[in-house]
Amino acid sequence: AIRIGKPASWDLAIAARDESGGFIRAVTDDEILRAQADIIRLAGIFVEPACAAPIAGLRNAIADGSIDGSQRIVAVMTGFGLKDPDTASRLIGEIRQSDATVAGVRRALGW
C-alpha cells in the first residue's frame, strides 16, 4: 500500500530489488499526481495514484541518469482510478454533460 510507511511486503520488495539489481526511490505526492494526470491525458488510462508512482520514479531516474531513457520500459498498471475517487475528482475538475450525440458533444465543448 502506498500510504503505509513500512508496508507488510517491504521485505519482499527489498528482496526483489536485490535479486534484480534494481533500486527503490521515493517520489513526492505532487510528482505522483503529475504522472497520474499525464497517464490519463496521454495514454487514456484512468489509473489510481499508486499506479502512477512508478512512472513518477521512472521520470526522476531518467532525469538523473539512473535509467537510460532510450530503453524500453514496461509499467504494469492494475489500479483503476475510481479506487481513489476524491483524487480523481480533483484531477478532472468541472464535469461537462452533453446529449449522447455528436452535436451534443460539440455544444458541450464549445465547438
Structure description:
The chain has about 110 residues and is mainly alpha-helical. It has one domain. It is about 50% helix and about 0% strand. It is built from five helices and no strands. Helix 2 crosses helix 3. The longest helix has 15 residues, at about 30-45. The protein is elongated, with a radius of gyration of 18 Å.
Condensed summary:
This protein has helices at 10-20, 29-43, 49-63, 85-92, 102-109. The chain is mainly alpha-helical and 111 residues long. It has one domain (10-92).
Strand and helix map with partners:
Blueprint: H1 10-20, H2 29-43, H3 49-63, H4 85-92, H5 102-109
Helix pairs in contact: 2-3
Shape field: elongated
Low-confidence spans: pLDDT under 50, at least 5 residues?
A: none
Class computed from helices, strands and strand pairing: mainly alpha
Q: Count helical runs.
A: 5
Average pLDDT figure: 87
Order of SSEs: HHHHH
User: How large is the share of residues in beta strands?
Assistant: under 5%
| Structural domains: how many | 1
**DSSP helix fraction:** 40-55%
- Terminal CA distance reads 43 Å
How many β-strand stretches? Answer: 0
Rg estimate, integer Å = 18 Å
Biggest sheet features: none
